[in-house]
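Running this now, will post back.
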Amino acid sequence: MTRALHVALARSTARLIVQRSAGALLALAALAGAASAQISTTVGPVLVPQGAELSITIANDQPFVSGASISWLRVQNAAGQFVYSDTTFELAVTFGPHGWLTFRYDLTDDQGQPLPPGQYRAFVKADTGAATTVHRFEVVAEGAGLVFQGTPTIHPPFGGGPGRTFLLQSPADGGLLYFLLAAKTSLVGVPTCNGTFPLDADPLLFLALTPGALFSDSLGVLDAQGRSELPRFSLPEDPSLVGLTLEAAFLVLDPNAPCIVRRISNVVPLAIVG
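Update: finished.
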């Protein structure tokens, strides 16, 4: 692994093997077979404040063991220039049922300098074949960024345990409160003293106003870096939930300020899988 891309194994992840050889890649391809189509790649947040990180999650969205090869990350700016390329590593990963693995990219270029604000595309090669997925994101000077690390699933990861996690980031707001909420839609939003909170005032939003009713640790405190990875979306194993969609966003709150709403994050759409 190089400087800017490091592996952070998610809690309760069911990865069984991590190897670095071409032979292992071929073995995994034979093991996974057609199941590899259910390996998903999630990259975000779509708005990344400077000082935050881009999260890259490879997830097994099926109830049996599967594998993936993870080969590289490349980042392209709006002018079409590749400003960051990490092609020096090759991982073969075997996931248990509904397991996942998360990487973080620190928003620096090949010279180690921070990426300036602007539009970018992340090219991620992570599959049992040669597929490359492309993900758009924007670096902003300041703000709050939200991503759900993977896809929400009704099944717990291999070995039990809670579901996959959100990553909340607001680098300028370390030590302040966050409140993660959800609604069915984000068409109108709710006016606040500091802009419009994008989620609509529907029954799901009112349910989410009770801390812990929808997401665990939905109300808490950002750490010194303005981050939290505590909130989780743990779903019951109810097949009727598969296919349902909702949207999430969070507020940064400062109870001592004239306007309690310090910052508002981007919206994250969530589609529940089986």
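Residues 1-37 have pLDDT under 50 and may be disordered. More later if anyone needs it.
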